[in-house]
Amino acid sequence: MPENEVTLRMRRRAKELLAGGEVQQVIGWEKGTFWYQSPPVFIRQPEEADRLVWDDFCLANPAIYLLDDRYGQERVGLFVKGCDARAVVRLIQDRQLVRERVYLLGIPCPGLKDPEAARTTGRESAQLPPARRCQHCLYPNPVLYDELLAQTVAPRPPLAPRAAVKALEAKGVEERFRYWREHFRRCLRCFACRNVCPACNCTACLFDLARPTWLAKEVDPANNWFYGLVRALHVAGRCIECGECERVCPVGLPLMALNEKLAKDLEELFGFKGAGLDLEGLPPLSFWQPDDPDHFA
Amino acid sequence: MSNPYVPVIARIERIIEETPDVKTFHLVTAAGKPFAPRPGQLAMLSLLPVGEGMFSVSGQGEAHLEFAIKKVGQLTTALHEAEVGQAVGIRGPYGNGFPVEELQGKDLVFIGGGIGLAPLRSLINYCLAHRPDYGELLIIYGARTPADLVFKEELFRHWPQAPGTAVHVTVDAGDAGWQGPVGLVPALLEQLNPRPQGKVAITCGPPVMIKFVLQALERMGYRDDQVITTLERRMKCGLGKCGRCNLGSKYVCLDGPVFTLGQLKALPAEY
Amino acid sequence: MPWLKDEAMPAFLAALQSQGRLWVPVEEEWGSCLAVWEEKSLRLTPGPTLLAAKGLFLPQTEKLFHYRVEAEGAVISESEPPAAAARQIVFGLRPCDVAAVAVMDKVFLDGGYVDCAYRARREASALVALACREAAPTCFCRAFGLDPLAAPGADVLLLPLEGGYLVRAQTAKGEELLAQAQGVLAQEPALDWPAPPAFLLEVTAAGVPAKLAAMFDHPLWDNLYQKCLGCGICTYLCPTCYCFDVQSADRGTEGYRYRCWDSCMFPEYTLMAGGHNPRPTKKERVRNRFLHKLCYLPERFGVFGCVGCGRCLLKCPVNLDIAAVLKKVQEVGTHV
């Protein structure tokens, strides 16, 4: 699989862009310790470009690393799937990045595989279920790019769209309360969900502030829950539904159910189709219009 | 067994306004002096609920400890708002302190900047209290302006009058009343040029001052074991457990804060 | 040697439970952890549980003392934790996790000061280890010289064999535990000592501490950190990561101080009042974490801060795990 056409094109283009000085660095994926791991890789030398791969496990979003050097001058070549490109759009809209600093090599994404299933079942790629987030992806083709490394793909009809949200909405308030309490009880507060999130691009985060203590460092159900819910509300309308928060959570919190619920509400209230689909469409909670529905009145 | 994280409650007995942003607090407990630290040792002071932080003990009397504290963050701001009589938690002493035995018989050159004179002061006064054990004392100190000089009483009265003690004070920028030298501490040090033979230099101050002081001392011929400095790091326990104050395999709270330049050069430069 | 038949396991666990709170490995939908037996049922899989046992000795959040704010400032109203912790038995710890407890012991019981809360919990705990006949794909305890069939720090060792377990008391505490379980133990049948399990990962830490001691300024660190998310997964899952923060919980005129796990991966960890940070970027933080485990702890306490449990291999979202780092350290030249 790593020797596929896209991989070969990635390597060739990375070499050309680096050798020609068009970019100083490219960010893509390489193979990890296990066959079902394709972690991010940072390449500066053309001769290192052969480490790059494109396969079923390139789940990591390379765009978030742009935040580590958000005020820098370097031009970065970024390999982007559909969801990654939406992250780039969001970073540009949030003024964390100027478009000229990235050269986007788009990869129309056929949908990736679930690495957890690979690990636990040992089945080969073709037999694995799709990664959870890919099951209802509507935008597999990069929405912003400088070049495409493959033919665009037709979006598959989403499997059971918003199934998790609908199932939760069907429960009563008490049951939903118990459901979230039980989940957040085990949150370790490692902040992986926040750190991996392209919507969480603030230079300073309220959850890190010692005083005033918005979020106590005590790890208990109340503080954990507060963290999870406030974060979900903060990224409402800016979440690109890439599912990275849920993938990285070490204790398997169903975080996307929260994000999808908010996305669903935003769609119903504002007709919002999703964050980061184009450079013009701002998140509905980022601006105000006289004819906004006003449920606070 | 006692819980090492529980402070003893002390009270502020006296507050001295050293500069616009430095105050010295005298702390006493019901039993008198909270403990008897060696010069250069540390103590955890807490003002609850605001927080707890590690401070150098800048002096002690028969029945009290002294802390010269600069207002830089939330805890120190709260301390600066405290009044005489207020309760302050204290636990310690922590750290190694200055090697007072090894320094016996040596001439000592103290080079301080700003609030960095606080730990040096504890050693200077210790040497003066044990005068026969130590050689000549040369004190070189500077601050940004005359108003920023700490321990003025000692700098201009007590120390210059003490036997075998010379004091040189400089400021980065003078004012109308300032008669003394104007300039940076490293420049004054080079001008005074104390010969390294039989001497140990002890320096504490802002990182940029330390950097140039160390360069000057090296040029003057001081060996790495003739130079001593003290470090500051964020600390939570003071007991070598919470993890954050390590420099390589050493902990500033246990193995420091006092290090020779030779020891520091063998450690990662994470300070 | 005493022999525990597979079918006698529930009776054995009941005998343990009669002597204190019994923690056993259980499998949840999201991963495995230790839970109180009978609330959840025992489930053994190769390798250690996803969540380590360290929280039983160093809880993620723990009160230190209570205070009351009076007119002239705070006074201590009550000191926690109680001197005597409740008796607990931790069953099913793998040899790596038993070794990890020994690392924590070094830090909290050695090295100058004794941490009373940790000591109380450790003294009230008995460790019943379970030797590994099978390694998980992420296991690499051998890299640190551990024997998957032994757990020298445990009070009791269970060695799984065909049809049951060989049971060995290794300490006085262990003998006491087993004394209550005599009724469910049989005598050892004639069985061959098993071969150690096969490992998938080829990793070794041989020579690494000395090599790393000269690598603080090595260019390796310039790239290694880049993919790090700066999250706390590795530190919170690691069975030997012990760093903590101390904070106040303020409830008007009263409150308490507590400590809670902290992570050296977080910028605030070393951030000083006034804004200076001696480890300002991910590079310094990542470097410190691996040097701490593979160089500083060996220097200070003579033990590695890694036991090869594989949790970071399992859960680091970007594969910046310690096995990968060990491999890189072994590969590079020491020249700078």
How does this structure look, described?
The complex is a heterotrimer of chains A (297), B (271) and C (336). With 297 residues, chain A is of the alpha/beta class. Chain A has two domains: 5-148, no CATH class; 163-286, no CATH class. Chain A has helices at residues 5-19, 82-93, 115-121, 163-169, 173-185, 192-195, 221-234, 244-248, 255-270; strands at residues 25-29, 40-43, 76-80, 102-106, 147-148. Chain A has a five-stranded mixed sheet with strand order 2-1-3-4-5. In chain A, helix 3 (115-121) links the parallel strand 4 and strand 5. Chain B is an alpha/beta fold and 271 residues long. Chain B has two domains: 8-94, Beta Barrel (Elongation Factor Tu (Ef-tu), domain 3), CATH 2.40.30.10; 107-230, Nucleotide-binding domain of ferredoxin-NADP reductase (FNR) module (Rossmann fold, 3-Layer(aba) Sandwich). Chain B is built from seven helices and 15 strands. Chain B has helices at residues 74-81, 117-129, 152-161, 185-192, 207-220, 252-255, 261-265, and strands spanning 8-19, 22-28, 42-47, 51-56, 59-60, 65-70, 87-94, 107-113, 137-143, 165-171, 199-204, 227-230, 246-247, 250-251, 258-260. A seven-stranded antiparallel sheet of chain B has the order 4-3-7-1-2-6-5. In chain B, helix 4 (185-192) runs parallel beside helix 5. Chain B starts with 7 loop residues before the first strand and ends in a 6-residue tail after the last helix. The mean pLDDT of chain B is 95. Chain C is α+β, with helices and mostly antiparallel strands. Chain C has one domain. Chain C has helices at residues 9-17, 95-109, 116-123, 172-179, 208-213, 220-224, 233-237, 282-301, 311-315, 322-331; strands spanning 2-5, 21-28, 31-36, 61-70, 73-79, 88-93, 125-130, 156-161, 164-169, 186-187, 244-251, 254-261. In chain C, the strands form two sheets. Chain C has an eight-stranded mixed sheet with strand order 3-2-6-7-8-9-1-10. A four-stranded antiparallel sheet of chain C has the order 5-4-12-11, with no helix packed on it. In chain C, strand 4 and strand 5 (73-79) form a beta hairpin. Chains in contact: A-C, B-C. Chain A binds chain C through residues 32-34, 37, 39-42, 60, 64-65, 68, 119, 186, 188-192, 194-196, 208, 210, 213, 216-220, 244, 247-248, 250-253, and chain C through 29-31, 50-51, 60-61, 137, 201, 223, 226-227, 229-233, 235-237, 245, 247, 249-250, 258, 260-263, 266-268, 282, 313-315, 317-321, 323-324.
